[in-house]
Amino acid sequence: MSKKKAKATKAKKDQSTDGAGVVAPAPPEVGGDGGSPEKKSQKIKNKIYEAELAKLQLELVKLQEWIKHKGLKVVVIFEGRDTAGKGGTIKRITERLNPRICRIVALGTPTEREKTQWWFQRYVAELPAAGEMVLFDRSWYNRALVEWVMGFCAEPEYREFLRSCPEFERMLVRSGIILIKYWLSVSDEEQERRFQSRIYDTTKRWKLSPMDLESRKKWVEYSKAKDTMFAHTDIKQAPWYVIDADIKKRARLNCISHLLTIIPYEDLTPEPIELPPRQKNIGYVRPPMSDQTFVPDAY
User: Nearest to residue 263, comparing CAs of 12, 65, 95, 54?
Assistant: First the structure.
């Protein structure tokens, strides 16, 4: 081996081992919340994505019918940083489903009256009845995340939430509710890219709020709040399921696929329907078309 090669090999060894010759792990990224670099490069082709999504959405329709048939009460919570893809994932779950059975809850800022209520009160009003599935786009976990990080709640309120939330969720489960909690995990770099995309795309700019920008400044504080939240609320009866969301399409497919494994269901697809013959126009005269106001043909 040449002297140059020997030096290069020694330098490489010095970088990758500690004094005892043991391979030293790479230092963790402070405040990191996303997937590995290998996964970030594994994009999924649109053709494959659309085909897999169609299969999964068909299964969701079967699950919906099972929930209705059995009178199940299902709650699915979606949490994660801004731009993690919560809304997009929820959209793909619901777009083929009946909104009377599967509905989305995305509550806004609480009113002055709601601020005086028990913290969980306005969320309880949105819980499902028998035969319903409710998807929460953010939830009662606002108290442990954005409210605490941004200073919208006092420390006693925050501590009380961490104490009472596990018991609240156990009570929901005991009452017969199937409670599923997802955390969509996105890396610092990917969140930055998505923020930039929203800034320069006028069709996405509405997604950005002053609060989003402020929370971006507090990345590490948000990471600490998430870790504390997990430590208190990742309970056996309702565990947190983490989804690597750096690649949106993969995250959506993985989430739906996993959701379908949580609730055992059977195929209750009805038999093909035969349309009856239309009633004949006997004794009916349609009013003149000129009496109606039509939308102009712009296209």
Answer: 65
Tell me the mean pLDDT in the region 6-23: 41
| The pLDDT of residue 215 | 75
Q: Give tens-digit pLDDT for 140-167.
A: 999 999 999 999 999 999 999 999 999 9
Decide if 149 is inside a domain. yes
Q: Is residue 42 part of a domain?
A: no
What whole-number distance in Å separates Cα of residue 84 and Cα of residue 80?
6
CATH code at 149?
3.40.50.300
Q: Hey, what are 143's tokens?
A: 């108290």
In a domain, 57, yes or no: no
Number of domains the chain is built from: 1
- 258 residue type, one letter: H
Residue 27 one-letter amino acid: P
Comparing 157 with 18, the larger pLDDT belongs to 157
**Which string of DSSP letters, residue by residue, matches 2-67?**
-HHHHHHHHHHHHHHB-TTSPBPPPPPPTT--S--HHHHT----HHHHHHHHHHHHHHHHHHHHHH
Angle at 229 between CA 180 and CA 263, to 5 degrees: 10
Tally of CA atoms within 13 A in the half-sphere of 284 that contains its CB: 5
The residue range of the domain holding 159 is 63-262
For the cut 60, the answer to whether the pLDDT of residue 26 exceeds it is: no
Residue 93 in domain: yes
Collapsing DSSP to helix, strand or coil, 139 comes out as coil
* pLDDT tens figures, 88-110: 999 999 999 999 999 999 999 99
